[in-house]
Amino acid sequence: MERIIVSGGVPINGKISIAGAKNAALPLLATSLLTDAPVILRNVPDLNDITQMLNLLDHHGANVDFDKSQKTCTLQVSSITDHVAPYDIVRKMRASILVLGPILARDGEVKVSFPGGCAIGTRPVNMHIDGLRALGAEISVANGHIHAVAPKKGLIGADFAMPMVSVTATENLLMAATLAQGRTVIRNAAKEPEVCDLARCLVKMGAKIYGIGSDTLVVHGVERLHGVDHTIIPDRIEAATYAVGAAITHGKVLLENVIFDDLSVFWESLEKAGARIVKIPRQTKSVDSEFEIANVQVEMTQDIRGTDVITGPFPGFPTDLQAQFMALMTICSGAALITETIFENRFMHVLELCRMGADITVHGGSALVRGVKWLTGTQVMATDIRASVSLVLAGAATSGTTEIRRIYHIDRGYEHIEKKLQACGVNIERAAA
Ligand code: UD1
Q1: Cα–Cα dist 187/214, whole Å
Q2: Is the CB of 278 under 6 A from ligand 1?
Q3: Last residue of a domain, one of 231, 264, 286
Q4: Domain count of the chain?
């Protein structure tokens, strides 16, 4: 198994071009199941999770052409040739559940292997199931599969209130509702930028969706959707991860292609921690006139200050940045209380950071991080995408060598991470086991 080896102590200095958003790309790829016309997606990141989703879509009958050099993926699902999402693919990526709503809406029947547990919590799928039941689907869970069957005349619009905010459950329901008869209201919908990107793309495909960006989405079902050419928004989590990288190593990075406003609470927290953040408007037109794509310069020239954060649904502090921010806080002056409210078990990185010399105590959903003077390099293990990258950042901040194992997690979510960091002066390399 491959490892990443980081010899730290060098500030991260340079430019990093931010890739397309993984969490937007995954549901956007699944939209191809809603139409027999071609779906062209641009700014598609080159990641293992994308490969997994393309494998799954291929299994369901998609004709897939991913031109990595152009970051463009063209998909066409003339007909769905297999209505079962098998365990072998689903177990590798929970987001496979995103095929449930589209296949059900288009063909009236689908079986998706029940996604297993996950390192960051139990992550149930009850809201995906309840939401589709509200649209009239008969759903049974047996033999490790979710089996959904729509009424003979197709799904029927309904009013559904999500008991809690869920990104992929909102996306599943939204995609299904576009082809349901009549009006669907999704209340307490996720407002994450990735959900909005999906909704905007569906509208371009002919869907009637109102309230995009709010917590109430209203969908008027249409008979069919057509093809689309859509450019995926930049990955806010990747951008923020490298911003933390600059801060933790007392460096300076220019992040290219960022929707600044999608990270407001994060920028505020990073500023409180002592970083200088400057948004630099770009001359070129944004991919979509609704938002502005800018460059952002992040620099840290002072001691890192202890800064508390609490994760929350958008526009709150993203849970997907909690591990990286915790890595930053390990070497702060003072202490920081980091509270996780989205996933009950998302502190897998704590023990690994402690192996590097961090002083962290977990009490329920909060972690008290007492800043230490320095971290030391050692062998650590990656446990999920964001936990893994927090170890890379911590490694870059030590004066020793850190060896990170189980790095397949990193390749699920960070495109060409070594190349991007090497270009900024970091001594990082991939080694075979
Ligand atoms: C998505 C993101 C992930 C991010 C998370 C929260 C994708 C592919 N992944 O994951 O990176 O960390 O949002 O921002 O977009 N829940 C239920 N029942 C359900 C569904 C969810 O109880 O049916 C709970 C979860 O256990 C969790 C909370 O809702 O406590 C939020 O999870 P959710 O937003 O669904 O996460 P994902 O969509 O899986």
Answers
A1: 9
A2: no
A3: 231
A4: 2
